[in-house]
Design brief:
GO terms for molecular function: oxidoreductase activity. Residues 13-189 form the Nitroreductase domain. This is Nitroreductase. Pfam families: Nitroreductase (PF00881). It is a single chain. By secondary structure, this protein is α+β, with helices and mostly antiparallel strands. It has one domain: NADH Oxidase (3-Layer(aba) Sandwich), CATH 3.40.109. It is 44% helix and 14% strand. The chain has helices spanning 6-15, 30-40, 60-69, 75-78, 95-104, 110-122, 129-153, 166-172, 202-205, and strands at residues 52-57, 81-88, 157-161, 179-188. The longest helix has 25 residues, at 129-153. It is globular. It starts with 5 loop residues before the first helix and ends in a 7-residue tail after the last helix. Bound molecules: flavin mononucleotide. Flavin mononucleotide binds at residues 17-18, 20, 73, 159-163, 183, 194, 197.
Length: 212
């Protein structure tokens, strides 16, 4: 049972803002980073196939290498780390591992396991590239949001970044051919608060039963 009350959770949600100025003296230990990433992996994914991969960049020289690739955005240099959220475009190759673990844990009967593996091999593997990309993007987006909220709960600030050159990133950080960069998330402690932002009123974005 979670010890978080509804109010605590909503405070975390409300306190998350995109911070772009970080205290460069703050370091996040590998242990704490692993803890946050582990918690984040409870995110849902299509058929639980978990296409996300992470490259945590906390070495200053590598952050400097990333800086021009990420449009010289200052948070790349000053945040404690930049987490590159990557998508494995051959994520269905882990189907057998995942469903075998589920079956061995007693969460999935053998028959269901076999069906799930067959679906991964017969359906996911043969989707066209844009459909594959869409699944990987959606699942990676869900874990990214979850990671940013977990970071906030632990007192850290984040900013998601799409403003970088994906091809140059792939080359500079030697990504395997089947890995695509989805987004970068700078994480650390704010030196300056985030800019305030507005949201469209609900009646412009939510509809009941028909779009009007
Ligand atoms: C996919 C994505 C890409 C973004 N890329 C950048 C970026 O490259 N640089 C940046 O400073 N902010 C970036 N942002 C942050 C948005 O500007 C920010 O989320 C938005 O203005 C709302 O502000 P808030 O996050 O403080 O609520 C990005 C956000 C998302 C979701």
């Amino acid at each position: 049972m979670s010890t978080l009350t509804k109010k605590d959770f909503l405070s975390v949600v409300r306190e998350r803002h995109s911070v772009r100025q970080y205290d460069p003296s703050v370091k996040i230990s590998r242990e704490e980073m692993q803890e946050m990433l582990t918690e984040a992996t409870s995110a849902p994914s299509s058929s639980n196939l978990q296409p996300w991969r992470f490259l945590v960049i906390d070495d200053q020289a590598l952050k400097e290498k990333l800086y021009p690739i990420a449009n010289n955005q200052a948070q790349v240099l000053d945040a404690s780390a930049v987490i590159a959220v990557l998508g494995d475009m051959e994520w269905y190759d882990k189907a057998e591992d995942i469903y075998t673990q589920s079956q061995e844990a007693g969460y999935m009967p053998e028959e269901v396991k076999q069906k799930m593996i067959a679906t991964a091999n017969q359906v996911y593997r043969h989707l066209d590239d844009s459909k594959k990309r869409s699944i990987v993007d959606i699942d990676s987006g869900l874990i990214s949001m979850q990671l940013m909220l977990i970071a906030r709960e632990k007192g850290y600030d984040t900013v998601p970044m799409g403003g970088f050159n994906h091809e140059k990133f792939k080359e500079a950080f030697n990504l395997p051919a089947n890995y695509e960069s989805i987004m970068l998330i700078a994480i650390g402690k704010a030196a300056q608060p985030a800019r305030q932002t507005v949201r469209l009123p609900l009646n412009q974005v939510a509809f009941w039963n028909e779009i009007n």
